[in-house]
């Protein structure tokens, strides 16, 4: 592990991302830097997936020794954090004053989804705790700001943020997995769905699986829905649930004592 002597308990490279210590400008190999290491790792992940990223592979891409990278980043998990920080970037600007919580949170969710769809490899980074890097904390802050004025307590606000961001991640991961499956099949998404529908119609005995049979009869698998339409529907359902909590909280606050 790298030195954590800055008092935050964070690795030196993450403290550098916060501006709490200087980033090493030069290393054993001239031109090697933390920024170049992260850029090379992100490029590998974007081209080949997160599984292709290793300290040795990044070092090879930079023409450096693997050991020289450890002067800048202490472990692969640490590198993952910095890659995620780079991929996410800062959150979008706050919506105009007077924007309702629901619209503000919806804009936040759509913006997060767009980032994930541009960086599908980032969805494979294991989550080990709360945000710990500047951009990730800034995204967290923007989501919480959207909930100001709802009357929700701070713990419930965090729960709402986790719920919405979890939905975003799940949808993006599902789309990534389905896209990979379609690509590996060598046929169009429409043909994959058609094959699935034909198979299920043969297997789903209406007496044993009546609900599934009715869905197939209705043709729900005969067409490929637009991803944005599905995401919009799901997000609306999630926010409807949050609206119920907000309304309930407001009702309790206004009830006579």
Provide the succession of SSEs: HHHHHHHHHHH
Main β-sheet: number of strands, strand sense, barrel status?
A: none
Q: Could you tell me the mean pLDDT?
A: 88
What structural class do the secondary elements suggest?
Answer: mainly alpha
Give the C-alpha Rg: 23 Å
β-strand percent reads: under 5%
End-to-end CA span: 56 Å
Number of separate helices: 11
Low-confidence stretches: 1-5
Number of strands: 0
Shape: flat
**Helical content (DSSP H or I, runs of 4+):** 55-70%
Write a brief caption for the model.
The chain is mostly helical and 257 residues long.
Describe this structure in words.
There is one protein chain. It contains eleven helices and no strands. By secondary structure, the chain is an all-alpha fold. The radius of gyration is 23 Å and the shape is flat. 62% of the residues lie in helices and 0% in strands. Helix 8 packs antiparallel against helix 11 (227-254).
């Amino acid at each position: 592990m790298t030195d954590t002597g800055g008092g935050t308990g964070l690795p030196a490279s993450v403290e550098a991302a916060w501006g709490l210590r200087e980033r090493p400008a030069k290393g054993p190999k001239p031109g090697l830097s933390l920024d170049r290491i992260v850029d090379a790792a992100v490029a590998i992940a974007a081209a080949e997936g997160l599984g292709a990223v290793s300290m040795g592979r990044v070092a090879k891409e930079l023409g450096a020794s693997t050991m020289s990278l450890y002067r800048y980043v202490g472990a692969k998990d640490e590198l993952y954090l910095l890659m995620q920080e780079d991929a996410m970037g800062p959150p979008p600007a706050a919506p105009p004053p007077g924007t309702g919580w629901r619209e503000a949170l919806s804009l936040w969710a759509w913006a997060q989804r767009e980032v994930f769809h541009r960086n599908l490899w980032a969805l494979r980074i294991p989550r080990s705790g709360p945000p710990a890097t500047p951009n990730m904390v800034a995204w967290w802050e923007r989501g919480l700001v959207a909930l100001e004025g709802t009357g929700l307590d701070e713990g419930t606000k965090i729960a709402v943020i986790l719920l919405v961001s979890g939905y975003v991640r799940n949808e993006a991961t599902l789309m990534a997995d389905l896209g990979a499956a379609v690509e590996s099949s060598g046929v169009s998404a429409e043909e994959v769905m058609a094959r699935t529908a034909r198979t299920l119609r043969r297997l789903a005995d209406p007496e044993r699986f009546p609900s599934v049979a009715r869905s197939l009869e209705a043709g729900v698998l005969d067409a490929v829905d637009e991803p944005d339409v599905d995401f919009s529907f799901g997000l609306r359902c999630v926010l409807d649930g949050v609206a119920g909590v907000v309304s309930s909280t407001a009702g309790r606050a206004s009830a006579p004592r």
